Amino acid sequence: GENVEQHPSTLSVQEGDSAVIKCTYSDSASNYFPWYKQELGKRPQLIIDIRSNVGEKKDQRIAVTLNKTAKHFSLHITETQPEDSAVYFCAAPTNFGNEKLTFGTGTRLTIIP
Amino acid sequence: NAGVTQTPKFQVLKTGQSMTLQCAQDMNHEYMSWYRQDPGMGLRLIHYSVGAGITDQGEVPNGYNVSRSTTEDFPLRLLSAAPSQTSVYFCASSTGVRNTGELFFGEGSRLTVL
Fold it and tell me: What is the pLDDT of residues A29-38, one digit of tens each?
């Protein structure tokens, strides 16, 4: 099945600085790459996703980049704010079918005021 | 819309007991799934359904059963609870990757097996 590796597991950045989280995947047929944010004690929620026909997608302070050749994708958060503190998960479809997502192990992002 | 509703939110079981986690969605989503979340291990897929009457196994199916008799409901059954099943369980639904792909999660069910 799909293997998704996510780094780093923890990340602390000063408020206003940028944060980058990286994920690699194993199945070259994967074509959909979402990122979920989970605040403490809450459910995961989709924040951004990208499909394999584009290399980058932005939504205000959040962007995702995809390198299909290297099989990795990254989440970029600029001008970080305290409310960005959360656990972030990347995911990719398994080779059993695109509806089954394999999640990374998560990155705990802490924004230091 | 209520979205995805899970019950119960908290449950304590003894080893060997059985129970059912309920999940219902009111968005007419075809796809429903169950994940478990353990510290440092992310979200792992337990079982999955592409529509009423159709289910499939995920990464960690052992010890769990599911059924999908209606589009709305997707209960998860623990047959004989073990301490290794202590976890937070999330139900999710979506219209599928071929559409928006977004998973809508329930609030989670925290299960402790003693």
Answer: 888 999 999 9
